[in-house]
Inverse folding.
């Protein structure tokens, strides 16, 4: 299709590479989320529940 | 001077929230009404009314733009402004900017509602608005962003709740997507050509189109879910930690999935695979968020029996789960072979917009109205009735589209005699077989619309005679900002970010290269791991602090979010932009249009033909048997904009040129049923009376030349002569076949374009020069 500027046998590594990228992002954010302090979580999750004058 | 905090009362700007909410309800009804009209046109073609302003091709963009930008846009702004002020304990930063945002956005919508039926379009789905409106959208979006970030900067609550993260991702990503996909070169005040063409344009368009769904219809509504659902249920979100994982996984993965709209097409296969894989991985964050929303209702399920707000939210989140299950399913290449170009996709989109966006909007409006007007909801019973009417409407609509889509997919790909002959060679067989389902679709849509009219009435009665109120809150304002300022530099030039970036670089190097480079990258990964361990041991660094500070600093947080969404776009789009040049094409290459054919193409785009006809023969047996050899990349390289389409209500036109004589098109465009009994295509009588616009052609061709289309150098006189000769040739051909028409009419130009479709030339040399357009 195009000249061979594009490597067209990426499929061999593509799935593993994609999963690796996703897993890295997922695990990093999971680690951060799990290490968030309990008090901080309580504070954050309570933010929407504060009421104003008409609630 | 004392450092003690001072107590103060903040009055929120809820007037802006009310404005956006009322606008959203109004535009929702307009968008849905137009939707019902165009659904009816598919059942009864007569509803096109032989009017150029009311055809399916012109009204469908009005429907989609109104639903996305007018209905959901206004709803999003209402929801964001209300929740933002309360989450950061600060009034909106600027009353002037709030007003400018509101009225500017409404002016944009009115401009769109006028220009789209007039046929003023860019010819790209969900990106049809003409360039002056595009600029206005970008400017008003900047106004929104300034107002938003300025409010955050003035906040009295140091922490940024997860809903605000989703809002930040929305603001940044929509700006990026919108600007890139709307880059154009104007030819007049109302017309332009996109700077991308062919496969580039296809890729950029669906990078934008898919992520418009992601970052305009999903992320802001998820933010709204994380604020309003706990409020309505009276309990905190099920898992705040899960919401963090949900956010980062979603914004990172979503941006990669766009190419799943182009499966089995001429798009390079590595991009198709990437789109499919990341779409499948979207299941995880989407369902994580959906479960987090539903489980927030733990212990509050009994309230669903009586509380319409929770009912709408629970159903809305459920539809989010359904739509995000179906989306990845449809992104699997083999499933997509059946579903693509069919009504199945339409059903999928509507389960998202009607079920997720519509129901979340309704739940939020019913929750907000009593608080914005300080009066109980006029009728909870009416709201409950709205819920059931809307729900049945969605189910009728979506079920009809599932059945219709699968029928179309099966019939149009069915073969006999060992796959050598089409089982249903006449495309209209699929159209007539699904016609009854179009009636059910229109009925379902009408029911949903009726529900929203009930909502409008209910909220009008709630507000009528009541006094609009602004919420107030007492806060302790600290003399020094409680947040620990981090700054952009400190946010990024630090150990965790640098190590992570190096890891990604070496990992990509290891996977994407071979030989010495791959080995070097592998050593790099090992070295970085070792360096990281030593660094931690020597410095005794605790990196938690960096992350914790990030949660309180919007600027580096925004920059990190931008980085997360930019990566996917760069990896997919940049290689295609670099190589999509005429000299790089192998196999076949499109023959450039003549000036008259270009004029005919502009008419094709104006009439929105791409809404029903594709120009892309997929690499599938059914497509090839029906339409000819599959489309190659080079065959649309000079198409600005690309017209591959996304739905086949009518047949593919990629190789239409020469398939029928000109007289066939002449009669077909005037009355399609005369040629194709059972067709639901509108009549186009105005093409036989309106003259072809040739005055602007020299400038249009000049712009196309600047974009890289090899049009021959011509003086305006030569160009006019070239147009006249081709017009007269086609008119003479029509006359010989028994039809008289003045050569300067639009139908002649359109026929010239249709007869050119699929014309290409072989390219033998690996570095062949681009051809010059025939005169």
């Amino acid at each position: 299709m195009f000249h061979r500027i594009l490597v067209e046998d990426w499929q061999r590594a593509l799935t593993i590479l994609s999963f690796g990228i996703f897993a890295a992002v997922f695990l990093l954010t999971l680690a951060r989320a799990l290490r968030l302090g309990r008090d901080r979580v309580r504070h954050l999750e309570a933010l929407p529940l504060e009421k104003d004058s008409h609630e | 001077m004392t450092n003690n905090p001072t107590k103060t009362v903040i009055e929120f700007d809820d007037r802006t929230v009310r404005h956006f909410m009322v606008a959203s309800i109004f535009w929702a009804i307009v968008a849905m009404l137009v939707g019902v009209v165009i659904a009816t046109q598919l059942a009864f073609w007569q509803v096109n009314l032989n009017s150029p302003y009311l055809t399916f091709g012109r009204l469908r963009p009005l429907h989609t733009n109104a639903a996305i930008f007018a209905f959901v846009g206004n709803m999003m702004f209402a929801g964001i402004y209300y929740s933002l002020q309360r989450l950061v304990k600060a009034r909106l930063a600027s009353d002037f900017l709030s007003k400018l945002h509101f009225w500017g956005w409404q002016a944009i919508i009115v401009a769109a509602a006028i220009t789209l039926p007039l046929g003023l379009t860019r010819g790209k789905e969900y990106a049809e608005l003409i360039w002056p409106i595009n600029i206005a959208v970008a400017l008003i979006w900047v106004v929104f962003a300034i107002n938003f970030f300025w409010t955050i900067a003035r906040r009295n609550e140091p922490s940024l709740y997860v809903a605000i993260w989703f809002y930040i991702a929305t603001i940044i990503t929509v700006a990026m997507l919108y600007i890139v996909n709307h880059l154009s070169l104007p030819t007049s005040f109302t017309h332009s050509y996109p700077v991308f063409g062919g496969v580039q344009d296809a890729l950029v368009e669906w990078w934008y189109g898919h992520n418009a769904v992601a970052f305009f219809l999903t992320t802001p509504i998820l933010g709204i879910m994380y604020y309003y659902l706990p409020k309505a249920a009276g309990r905190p979100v099920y898992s705040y930690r899960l919401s963090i994982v949900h956010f980062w996984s979603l914004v990172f993965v979503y941006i990669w999935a766009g190419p799943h709209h182009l499966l089995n097409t001429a798009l390079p296969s590595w991009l198709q695979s990437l789109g499919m894989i990341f779409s499948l991985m979207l299941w995880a964050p989407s369902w994580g968020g959906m479960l987090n929303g539903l489980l927030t209702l733990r212990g509050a399920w009994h309230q669903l029996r009586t509380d319409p707000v929770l009912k709408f939210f629970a159903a809305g989140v459920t539809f989010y789960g359904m739509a995000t299950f179906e989306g990845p399913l449809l992104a699997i290449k083999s499933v997509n072979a059946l579903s693509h170009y069919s009504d199945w996709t339409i059903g999928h989109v509507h389960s998202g917009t009607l079920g997720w966006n519509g129901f979340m909007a309704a739940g939020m409006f019913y929750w907000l109205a009593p608080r914005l007007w300080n009066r109980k909801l006029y009728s909870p019973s009416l709201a409950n009735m709205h819920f059931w009417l809307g729900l049945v409407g969605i189910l009728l609509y979506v079920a009809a589209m599932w059945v219709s889509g699968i029928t179309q997919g099966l019939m149009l790909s069915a073969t006999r005699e060992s796959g050598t002959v089409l089982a249903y060679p006449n495309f209209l067989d699929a159209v007539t077989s699904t016609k009854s389902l179009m009636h059910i679709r229109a009925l379902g849509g009408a029911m949903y619309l009726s529900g929203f009219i009930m909502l409008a009435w209910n909220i009008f009665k709630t507000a009528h005679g009541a006094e609009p109120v602004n919420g107030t809150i007492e806060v302790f304002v600290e003399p020094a900002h409680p947040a620990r300022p981090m700054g952009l530099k400190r946010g990024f030039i630090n150990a965790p970010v640098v190590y992570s970036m190096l890891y990604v670089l070496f990992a990509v190097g290891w996977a994407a290269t071979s030989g010495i480079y791959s080995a070097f990258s592998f050593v790099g990964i090992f070295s970085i791991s070792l360096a990281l361990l030593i660094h931690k041991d020597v410095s005794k660094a605790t990196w938690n602090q960096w992350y914790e500070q990030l949660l309180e600093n919007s600027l580096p947080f925004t920059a990190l979010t931008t980085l997360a969404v930019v990566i996917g776009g760069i990896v997919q789009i940049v290689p295609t932009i670099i190589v999509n040049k005429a000299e790089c094409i192998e196999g076949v290459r499109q023959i450039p249009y003549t000036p008259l054919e270009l004029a005919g193409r502009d008419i094709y785009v104006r009439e929105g033909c791409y809404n029903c006809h594709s120009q892309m023969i997929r690499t599938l047996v059914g497509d090839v048997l029906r339409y000819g050899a599959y489309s190659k990349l080079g065959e649309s390289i000079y198409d600005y904009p690309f017209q591959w389409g996304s739905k086949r209500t009518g047949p593919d036109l990629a190789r239409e040129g020469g398939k029928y004589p000109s007289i066939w098109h002449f009669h077909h465009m005037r009355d399609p049923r005369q040629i194709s009994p059972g067709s639901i295509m509108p009549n186009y009588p105005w093409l036989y009376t309106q003259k072809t616009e040739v005055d602007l052609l020299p400038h249009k061709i000049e712009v196309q030349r600047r974009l890289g289309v090899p049009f021959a150098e011509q003086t305006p006189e030569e160009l006019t002569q070239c147009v006249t000769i081709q017009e007269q040739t086609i008119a003479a051909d029509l006359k010989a076949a028994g039809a008289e028409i003045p050569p300067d009419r639009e139908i002649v130009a359109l026929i010239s374009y249709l007869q050119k479709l699929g014309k290409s030339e072989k390219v033998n040399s690996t570095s062949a020069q681009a051809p010059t357009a025939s005169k």
